[in-house]
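re: ur question from earlier - yeah i can do the single chain one, its not a big deal. heres the input i used so u can compare w yours
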Amino acid sequence: QLQASGGGLVQSGGFLRLPCAASGRPFSNNGMGWFRQAPGKEREFVASISWNGGSTHHSDSVKGRFTISRDNAKNTFLYLQMNSLKPEDTAVHYCAAARRAVAGSNGYEYAYWGQGTQVTVSS
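and the output i got, formated as tokens:
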């Protein structure tokens, strides 16, 4: 029901934009989030956004470099703009829909998880 895409291989300092598309049901009333997981590491919160985009939160590790946004009028409605990429950003990135209209950094708040997209940043 959720599918992230847009990953790839990019050099340090580069940028990527990850879209997340919904199918089967809308998520316009759900808070949304982005998480990532690097090999051998636990899943990490990246960013979240409220149902109407009025509230956003970014982890300290990406603040000032990444921006979460959404456009509920489109099937591909969630985005993660990633600028100034670093090798430590290398991970599989996932989009997720929360049970409520607002969402935070705890994975347990999220009921729907999409297939991830690999982001690899070379030094």
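The CA atoms of residues 28 and 72 lie 5 Å apart. not sure if urs matches, ping me
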